[in-house]
Amino acid sequence: MDENNRITITVCGDGGCGKSSITLRLVRSQWTSEYDPTIEDSYSVTRTIDGVPYYLMLTDTAGQEEYRGLWAASNLQSDAFLLVYDITAANSLDALDYFMEMIDMETDNRLDNGKIPPIKCVVGNKCDLQGQRVIEAKTGLEWARTRKCGFMETSAREMVNIEETFALLVRRVVEARRLAAGDSAINRTAAMPLSSNPNLSPGQTYTEKHQDDGEPKQSFWSKLKCW
């Protein structure tokens, strides 16, 4: 598969918010009510989005505080981050601040080095438990918007917005890569020497023009002008 069609995604959030349930719903179409704290699990799955097959490499990470040091060391190179909170647990949204701080530092580092910044999407999970909701959708949306993240509410149990969430991430990664490729092409064009002669093509030197016309070579430096 084309390397451009490979996308790495890290799933992060507080313990018990449903990260593993979301991941397993996508990868295996499974859901379990049993809570088994994750240190770190990796999965891969292929999805066709907008007619294009993509190979998704997912890392389901630890939410417990005692394992968060491991998260920082191994998961900051992903193309995208899915930040999950539990709409029935008030503290789970606040817990995302820890992960967001590290992702923001990684974003700044990539921008400083001319690399594509990661895509971020916030997910309010367990939206099927409306009677137990303590975090309104508006609150989650505002939290995501102020941090320049996408936003969805999901239910791993009822398979609500699981496929849609990962499709959103893929589309945003693809768009970021497309824009970066366009910027690179523009920068390459801008770096070409500009001609001071209106009869020359952009990037063409006076000497090249007259070589094409069969005229004798002339010194490039003797014709170079600055504007």
Topology:
Elements: E1 6-13, H1 19-28, E2 40-49, E3 52-61, H2 68-74, E4 80-86, H3 90-94, H4 96-112, E5 119-125, H5 137-146, E6 150-153, H6 162-190, H7 206-212, H8 220-223
Parallel strand pairs: 1-3, 1-4, 4-5, 5-6
Antiparallel strand pairs: 2-3
Task: Walk me through what this model shows.
Residues 207-216 have a biased composition (Basic and acidic residues). Residues 194-206 have a biased composition (Polar residues). This protein has helices at 19-28, 68-74, 90-94, 96-112, 137-146, 162-190, 206-212, 220-223; strands at residues 6-13, 40-49, 52-61, 80-86, 119-125, 150-153. The protein is of the alpha/beta class and 227 residues long. The protein has two domains: 3-186, P-loop containing nucleotide triphosphate hydrolases (Rossmann fold), CATH 3.40.50; 193-223, no CATH class. A six-stranded mixed sheet has the order 2-3-1-4-5-6, with helices on both faces. The longest helix has 29 residues, at 162-190. It starts with 5 loop residues before the first strand and ends with a helix. The model is unreliable at 194-198, 200-212 and 216-227 (pLDDT under 50).
